[in-house]
């Protein structure tokens, strides 16, 4: 299906991909995208005008924007995920390692960030943000200034800096989950934490960027929003600290995600004016998956493939009829073609 020719009265449809954070549960959206990609002639990232991602979703977003096929990014989770989280040994070795990390977690970050960095380098190499083939948004948190920090491609005249930064720096920053990893110090010594601190679901960030800095009409936007999993749970009528302690992180994450979705719906006119947002996030029981438990990677991979099979007919006409228009950054790295 070829879209109608664009004009000031009929602006082109702009396709946005937004991917939530969720640690190793990012296997699910990675598998979802890899399954859809099997029927496409190009890497799936090439079909979007703007890609946003937080934490594990930020790692995927960076890779996809660089033109890396989703199947290669899925391999990072399936093949190297156990090594990243120290669960690639035998039963006894893994048990001892898990016990040590739980004890360490009380006073220090649970995991070794260097293991993650080494694996990301094998995928992203020495690429810089300016090497992205698609517009990119990756949120992090500036712990020293207690403020937002967003890596962006040079898609607006004000964005003069980030395109020179290492892609691995952005990936490490957006994934530096507090208590799981130490704060990430960038090449220029900025101390950053996981973007999930404020934008675990980056859909509102992406839609605001599209309608403001990029100037795209709200009614031209179509957003594919991917969550990792949606935990189903209930809270008591009046829980005390003990009753809420283990659910408090999920509670705040859910609040942020639903708030972001609500804002994106208002901006795009979703549901009442048009179908603009396509949210895919499978329901799972509370506590069944964990951010750093790799023993259920196979199940996460299967869930992603099954969800893609179910959603393919709905998504293909909207997002995958043909690749998006080429992205021409305002500023380019030295040595790249004009």
Query: What is the helix fraction of residues, given as a range?
Result: 25-40%
Topology as H/E string? Answer: EHEHHHHEEHEEHHEEHHEEH
Q: What gross morphology would you assign?
A: globular
Query: Helix segment count?
Result: 11
pLDDT averaged over residues: 91
Structural class of the secondary elements?
alpha/beta
Radius of gyration: 20 Å
How many strands in all? 10
State the major sheet: 8 strands, mixed
Uncertain regions spanning at least 5 consecutive residues: none
- Report strand %: 5-15%
Q: Overview of this structure, please?
A:
With 338 residues, the protein is of the alpha/beta class. The chain has eleven helices and ten strands. It has helices at 27-37, 56-65, 70-84, 91-104, 113-124, 167-174, 196-199, 203-211, 241-244, 248-268, 297-319, and strands at 14-19, 50-53, 135-142, 147-152, 184-185, 191-194, 221-226, 230-232, 277-280, 283-285. Helix 2 (56-65) packs antiparallel against helix 6, helix 3 runs antiparallel to helix 5 and helix 8 packs parallel to helix 10. The longest helix has 23 residues, at 297-319. The protein is globular. The mean pLDDT is 91.
């Amino acid at each position: 299906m070829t879209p109608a020719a664009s004009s000031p009265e009929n602006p082109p449809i702009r396709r946005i991909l937004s991917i939530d954070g969720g640690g190793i549960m990012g296997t699910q959206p990675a598998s979802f995208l890899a399954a859809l990609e099997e029927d496409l002639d190009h890497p799936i990232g090439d079909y979007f005008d703007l890609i946003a991602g937080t934490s594990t979703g930020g790692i995927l977003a960076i890779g996809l924007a660089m033109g890396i096929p989703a199947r290669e990014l899925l391999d990072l989770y399936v093949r190297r995920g156990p090594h990243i989280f120290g669960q690639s040994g035998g039963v006894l070795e893994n048990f001892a390692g898990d016990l040590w990390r739980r004890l360490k977690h009380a006073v220090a970050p649970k995991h070794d960030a260097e293991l993650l960095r080494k694996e990301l380098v094998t995928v992203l190499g020495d690429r810089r943000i300016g090497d992205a083939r698609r517009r990119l948004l990756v949120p992090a948190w500036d712990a020293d200034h207690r403020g937002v920090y967003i890596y962006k491609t040079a898609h607006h005249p004000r964005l003069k800096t980030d395109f020179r930064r290492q892609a691995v720096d952005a990936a490490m920053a957006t994934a530096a989950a507090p208590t799981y990893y130490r704060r990430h110090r960038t090449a220029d010594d900025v101390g950053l934490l996981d973007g999930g601190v404020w934008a675990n679901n980056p859909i509102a960030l992406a839609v605001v960027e599209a309608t403001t800095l990029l100037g795209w009409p709200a009614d031209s936007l179509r957003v594919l929003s991917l969550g990792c999993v949606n935990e189903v749970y209930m809270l008591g009528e009046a829980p005390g600290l003990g009753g809420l302690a283990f659910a408090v992180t999920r509670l705040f994450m859910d609040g942020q995600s639903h708030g972001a979705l609500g804002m994106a719906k208002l901006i795009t006119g979703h549901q009442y004016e048009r179908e603009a947002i396509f949210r895919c996030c499978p329901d799972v029981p509370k506590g069944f998956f964990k951010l750093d438990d790799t023993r259920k990677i196979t199940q996460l991979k299967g869930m992603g493939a099954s969800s893609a099979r179910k959603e393919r007919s709905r998504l293909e006409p909207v997002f995958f009829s043909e690749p998006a228009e080429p992205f021409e950054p305002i500023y380019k790295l030295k040595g790249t073609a004009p």
